[in-house]
Amino acid sequence: MLLHSDKTNFDIFYNDMILQFPKEELKSKAAFKKLIDSGKYDILSAFEKSAYVFIVKDIENSVIWLDYLAVMKNFHSKGYGKRIMESLKEYYPKYYGCYLEVEKPDENVADTIRRINFYKNLGAVRLNCDYFYPNENGYLPMDLYYLPFDDKLPQNSIKTIENIFNILHSELPHIKDVLQRIKFYR
Fold this sequence. Notes:
Helix content is about 35%, strand content about 30%.
């Protein structure tokens, strides 16, 4: 199997995340440690630690939530990200799909377009909703995508978001306010 549990290398991954992710999208190291200790957070690595993925499982709705995916900078553009995403189906065979938080497209920031195209090429679909990522400063408007592992789109997205936020962002006092901003459209 390509992916394997790898919580012991969190410090290496976190140092890489500081370089690759916008500050407003990163949790504090203490928040990560709390998630890791909770047992509800999986850290997986692949390719001898050159790529990693952080996942939360929503057992109630049988879906996973991709919190972070990264390939170490010197291994970019070698197909590792795609192989990791494809391996998630195998690693989580009892789950129906994967939610993905993605930055809004910005023509002035090429990486936003590249990331969106990456997920779309894998079969992820943008959910028709107003979505917000909660952070220490309030929230960040983002798009929410879903990558089905079978042919079904998610049925209970708002409940999944509530479940995930209660795991990922429980330390933030304004979670309920952010949840109330999230709206799904038909």
